[in-house]
Amino acid sequence: MAEKNVGGRDRLARALLAVLLTVVAISTLRKGKSKTGLLALVGALGFGFNATTCFCGLNQALGIDTTDG
């Protein structure tokens, strides 16, 4: 497994974004806007994955580490 590079406030922000984008996805999909809804869903899944695993591939590529230790 990859080394953790997401922590603290960054992890909380990603979790909140995942929830927000999930709400947007559900709302837009119900309105029949499938492209917008699916993009929001993909974003929600990505941020949710980052928050859950504490790992972000982009952070790794850029050399960013927001963990405390």
TrEMBL record:
<dbReference type="InterPro" id="IPR021309">
    <property type="entry name" value="YgaP-like_TM"/>
</dbReference>
<keyword id="KW-1133">Transmembrane helix</keyword>
<dbReference type="Pfam" id="PF11127">
    <property type="entry name" value="YgaP-like_TM"/>
</dbReference>
<protein>
    <recommendedName>
        <fullName>Inner membrane protein YgaP-like transmembrane domain-containing protein</fullName>
    </recommendedName>
</protein>
<keyword id="KW-0472">Membrane</keyword>
<feature type="transmembrane region" description="Helical">
    <location>
        <begin position="38"/>
        <end position="62"/>
    </location>
</feature>
<feature type="transmembrane region" description="Helical">
    <location>
        <begin position="12"/>
        <end position="29"/>
    </location>
</feature>
<keyword id="KW-0812">Transmembrane</keyword>
<feature type="domain" description="Inner membrane protein YgaP-like transmembrane">
    <location>
        <begin position="3"/>
        <end position="66"/>
    </location>
</feature>
